[in-house]
Write a structure and sequence with these properties.
With about 250 residues, the chain is α/β, with parallel strands linked by helices. It has one domain (about 10-235): Spore Coat Polysaccharide Biosynthesis Protein SpsA, Chain A (Alpha-Beta Complex), CATH 3.90.550. It has seven helices and eleven strands. The chain has helices spanning about 5, 40-50, 90-100, 125-135, 180-190, 200-205, 225-235, and strands at about 15-20, 35, 40, 55-65, 80-85, 110-115, 140-145, 150-155, 160, 170-180, 210-215. It is globular, with a radius of gyration of 18 Å. The structure holds cytidine-5'-monophosphate. Cytidine-5'-monophosphate binds near residues 20, 21, 88 and 115. Cytidine-5'-monophosphate (C5P) binds near residues 62, 86, 87 and 90.
C-alpha cells in the first residue's frame, strides 16, 4: 500500500473495530459479534457499514488471538480491511489497532472506533459525526440523551443521588478522535490504571473535552439475548438484513 502521508493533504478517516471480546453477558457459546443475523454475522454487518462508506479509507479489525480470520464470514473489502491481534482489555485491543494505524496514517488523521456489536449504526449518524467534527482539534462521540432518570448508587443497593437528566447522555459509538491524541491518551490512561470503557473516557482523562454529537437510540450494542431480536428488527427496517449487502 502506498504511503498515504505523501498522497493526501487532508486528514483521512479510518475505522477501528475492536472485536476481541468474549461477550460473557450474552451466555452464547461464541462471542456475540460472531452470532448470525439473517445470513451474515453481526461483525460482518458492522464492517460493511464502513467498507461501503466512500469517505472511509480503511478499516482495522482487532480480533482475539484464537480467531482464524480466514474462517470468518467477512464482507468484500477490496484490500481496505486490516487485521490486528487484540489484548486482554478493550483498551489494549484499541491500542494495538492505533499502533498499527500509526505506521500508515498521520497524527491528524481521524480514527472512528466502533464496537463490533453495534451493527445498526444508521448511515445518517455516521455522516453527521464526520460532518460535525471534521474541523475539531480533538473529536467526539455519538451519544443519545437519556430518556431514563439515572440514579447514582452508594456502591451498594441504595441511591446516593439522582443525576440531572437534562445533562445525562449515553455514550454510543463510533467515537471519532485524531489518531495522535487518542493514541497518547489511551496509552496514558492504561499506564495510570485508569478504567477505559470507551475512547472518550481516555480523552477526558487526558484533560480534553470530547464533543457530543446526537445519535439515534437504534444504534444498540448487542449485549443480551433480547437485543438480537431488536437488532434484527432495526436492520430489516434499514433494508440491510438481506438486500444491499455485498457478501
Ligand atoms: O465488553 P464490551 O461490550 O464493552 O466490548 C465492546 C467491544 O470491545 C466489543 O466489540 C468487544 O469485542 C471489544 N473488546 C475487544 N477486546 C477486549 C474486550 C472487548 O476488542 N479485550
Amino acid at each position: 500500500m502506498a504511503d498515504p502521508r505523501e498522497q493526501h493533504a487532508d486528514p483521512q478517516f479510518w475505522a477501528l473495530i475492536p472485536a476481541a471480546g468474549i461477550g460473557r453477558r450474552m451466555g452464547a457459546d461464541q462471542p456475540k459479534q460472531f452470532l448470525t443475523l439473517g445470513s451474515h454475522s453481526i461483525l460482518s454487518h458492522t464492517l460493511s457499514i464502513f467498507l461501503e462508506h466512500p469517505r472511509i479509507r480503511g478499516v482495522v479489525l482487532v480480533l482475539g488471538p484464537e480467531v482464524d480470520p480466514d474462517a470468518l464470514d467477512l464482507p468484500f473489502a477490496g484490500g481496505r480491511l486490516f487485521r490486528v491481534v487484540g489484548g486482554a482489555e478493550r483498551a489494549d485491543s484499541v491500542q494495538n489497532g492505533l499502533d498499527f494505524l500509526a505506521e500508515r496514517a498521520t497524527p491528524d488523521d481521524w480514527v472512528l472506533v466502533h464496537d463490533a456489536a453495534r451493527p445498526c449504526l444508521p448511515i445518517a449518524d455516521l455522516d453527521r459525526l464526520l460532518g460535525d467534527l471534521g474541523n475539531d482539534p480533538v473529536g467526539g462521540l455519538l451519544a443519545a440523551p437519556s430518556t431514563d432518570t439515572i440514579k447514582w448508587s452508594d456502591g451498594g443497593a441504595a441511591v446516593e443521588r439522582t443525576l440531572d437528566r437534562a445533562r445525562v447522555w449515553r455514550a454510543l459509538t463510533p467515537q471519532m478522535f485524531r489518531l495522535g491524541v487518542l493514541r497518547e491518551a489511551n496509552a496514558a490512561a492504561r499506564a495510570a490504571g485508569h478504567p477505559v470503557t470507551d475512547e472518550a473516557s481516555a480523552i477526558e482523562f487526558f484533560g480534553e473535552r470530547p464533543r457530543l454529537v446526537e445519535g439515534s437510540a437504534v444504534n444498540i450494542k448487542v449485549t443480551r439475548q433480547e437485543d438480537l431480536e431488536l437488532a434484527r428488527l432495526y436492520l430489516m427496517r434499514q433494508g440491510r438484513l438481506q438486500e444491499g449487502f455485498r457478501g
